[in-house]
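User: Thanks for the earlier help. One more: Transcriptional regulator. Can you show the sequence and predicted structure together?

Assistant: Of course, both are below.
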Amino acid sequence: MRIIKYLFLLLLLSLVALSIFIATQKGVFTVERSKIINSQKSSLFNYANDLKNWKEWNSLAVEDPLLNITYSNNTIGKGSFCSWDGKEAAGELKTTNVKQDDSILQTMDINGNIADISMSFKDTLGKTKVTWKAKGKMSFTFKILSVFNGGANKLFGSIFEKSLANLDKKLDYEINTYNVKVNGVVKKLEAFYLAQTFTSEFSNVSKNTSIVFSKITTFCNNNNITIKGKPFVIFHTYDTTNKLTKISICIPIKDPIFITEGSEISSDTLPSFEAVKTTLTGDYSHTQKALDKTLEYLKTNNIKTDPSFSRLELYSIGKNEINSPSKWKTEIYFPTKPKPVYRPAAVSSIPTEEVVPADVEKEIPSEF
């Protein structure tokens, strides 16, 4: 009996000693991991900057398929956030600041362990070096977990390493798989739409379209306005020297409406027009390849563009429908000048050989 008491006392003293040891461990931790990702910096940044993609590559989500994730209305850039509840962890991730194509700053809370997170992106010969760093404080429970798992650096480091490997594998296929097809001359029918028009840097177009599409969609829902068709962007001017473009970010609607002057959102009508259509299947980073192929087609076929606007991009399958960039579908329309109509000259009463016009317009398929 005395031996049992001694053993119990020894166990109790061991637990007290262990608790004191754990409690006196540093609560502050810093973890950093880097990896070369086989994708261009801008594509990688845009993918990581959208929290909707988080579940596709972060090991916390990849290894827990039953993880329940809730997102903010806007999932891109500063102010976006998501929260989750899973079998092993619950937490929240919030983006506090971004520097386009350079860095993303976030705060994360996992089971009461709060950390400042940063991801930086550097070009490396066509690929991208991602450096992921976390600095924060551990709860007492997490101190216990870290002691038995090699410390916070090893525990968090393992999550970072697996997540970066997932990111590389996911993006290698999703970003680099694409197809460009020039469909030829088509006719776009008249459409009514709501829009917000402003000048944007090239690098901010993707972020701005997501924000404005969400804003106009909410406006339509709140005012019982029927949306008809897919969202599109009209590029009025396209300044490659200064990398600036004047755009109208548009949502098509069923019926024309009147909006009070002074509102950020305007109502307008897109008249019917003829255009050369090109379809890009894949990530938006390949848009320039689609533009180049379209311009080559225009030149080869001696087709003149209409200067009323630069082009129109319609997102028939986008990130709101599917989370895989390789399956996104963008229709690009370059407005063209109507071909001249050839009319035969007045025919004299003297019989002559029949003259056939040298250039007869082909029937143009109609689409919306």
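User: Great, one quick takeaway?

Assistant: The chain has two domains: 26-174, 180-335.
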